[in-house]
Amino acid sequence: MDDGAHETMPSVAIDPALAQAIVDRSMTVIACNINVMDSHGVIIASGDPARLGQVHDGALRVMARQEAVEIEPRAAPPDGDARPGVNLPLRLGGAVVGCVGLTGVPGTIRPYAELVRMAAETMLEQAQQSRTLSRETRLREELVLSLIRDEAPIPALAASAARLGIDLRPARVAAIVEILPRTQDGIALVGDMHRLGTLLGAPDQGNLVAPLSLTEIAVLTPALTARGTWDPDRLRERAQRLLARAQTATGLDLRLALGRPVEGPGGMARSYQVARATLAAGRRLHPARRALFYEDMRLPVLLDDPLRDWRTQELRAPLRPLTDAARHAPLLRTLRTWLDHGMQQRATAAALGLHRNSLDYRLRQIERLCGVDLTRSADIVALYLALHLTPDAVPDRPADPDPAPVVT
């Protein structure tokens, strides 16, 4: 085949399944046989299965002339394959990619042939757009996966992003959205992942998304405000709104873990690692929480050992007298509140709704049970670390009433 033939060869092939769908749908309203031929004139779809795979003479003429060809009954050889009818070129992107033919008297079926051609070209365009969108989606996902896995992104990533219309210069922060089981033994469905990915990656959100597994999606979301500043509170609120909207729209039970922005080469990969560690620590320590933020969990994320080796157990040991007994839940809550309020007696008592003397009693109980001195910095640090590395307590029975006397 010479060079000129190569230049006119269509670059798009018609999918036989789609071609058959065009035929089947058209023949429900038009009482004649319909054929769809590829660029070589071969019948790839027909209302007459016996004709599949045959070379259609009219289609060959259409491809050669790049225009409609009609065959009158008197012109059709009685002993050949050519049959009377109207054959029209199918164009896609300005190129003739095939042909559609209707069998019958041209003067009768000509108007119907044009309608079938228009419907067929519309279906071909929609299919091509769908393929293009799927390809772009796949390329965007591959870009995201490369960004979160490569400590030092190669220049090719920037070139790929530019082709997709993605600007990698603005700082982004990584998050992981996890679909929790519908039941204890349930798993997420593929449709769930598709719906969630579509929502999280909506153009107006500015997010880059990619599935990590059957139950997890990575999200790279803009980290800076319009003024180019880093606002943790704004990003936290944005993440919470995104989580709430996703849960409402999909009906799924979701958990979100947000890392922190990291500047410089490989920053998105490090941000993803932070989000992954935050999710892992949050699963163990706060299983009921649906929004996990590294800024709130910096200490447990840095110190929590996924292998739960002896060092983790040693760090948790000072608090074990309170966590091992459900009746000590009020003391555990008191210690957490006391530390959260900077060890200020007045603020802690107000937060707990206690009299100062009742608070003092509880703190002495904590000292006695845990064998610590709350005036010693070392003991306070030990309890602080243990508290942040201990999973949220879920007592298996109601806690006993607070034994502390209220002294007025």
Automatic annotation (TrEMBL):
Residues 331-388 form the PucR C-terminal helix-turn-helix domain. InterPro entries: CdaR-like_regulators, CdaR_GGDEF, Diacid_rec, PucR_C-HTH_dom, PucR_C-HTH_sf. Residues 14-146 form the Putative sugar diacid recognition domain. Coiled coil: none annotated. Residues 156-280 form the CdaR GGDEF-like domain. Signal peptide: none annotated. Pfam families: Diacid_rec (PF05651), GGDEF_2 (PF17853), HTH_30 (PF13556). It comes from the Bacteria. Belongs to the CdaR family. PANTHER family: CARBOHYDRATE DIACID REGULATOR. This is Putative carbohydrate diacid regulator. The lineage of its organism: Bacteria, Pseudomonadati, Pseudomonadota, Alphaproteobacteria, Acetobacterales.
